[in-house]
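Hi R.,

Here's the input for the NAP complex you asked about:
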Amino acid sequence: MSSISIIGLGNMARALAGRALAGGNAVEIIGRDLAKAKELAATLGGATVGTAGAAPAGDIVI
Ligand SMILES: NC(=O)c1ccc[n+]([C@@H]2O[C@H](COP(=O)([O-])OP(=O)(O)OC[C@H]3O[C@@H](n4cnc5c(N)ncnc54)[C@H](OP(=O)(O)O)[C@@H]3O)[C@@H](O)[C@H]2O)c1
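And here is the predicted structure with NAP in place:
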């Protein structure tokens, strides 16, 4: 399992996060709009939400 931080809330973020979660990885979602980031994380299920501008938590940052 890897720990992956994804910056952005768009098409690529959704697709990559979904695949990463399906593969059993820990996923952190980071977006400039915190409310939208929380919404995406909830939609995906199982993702956490990071703070824009802070250091990403993941070992891998996309
Ligand atoms: N979609 C594809 O099939 C595809 C394929 C190959 C490559 N790409 C490339 O992948 C990238 C993303 O594509 P996408 O389709 O996911 O785009 P998208 O749906 O427009 O989403 C882009 C996301 O990046 C965020 N963002 C942009 N600049 C940012 C910054 N400085 N700091 C934080 N967040 C930032 C935007 O945040 P806001 O909402 O706050 O603006 C938005 O959430 C693009 O460079 C695109 O060319 C896409």
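One thing worth noting: The first strand starts at residue 3 and ends at 7.

Cheers,
M.
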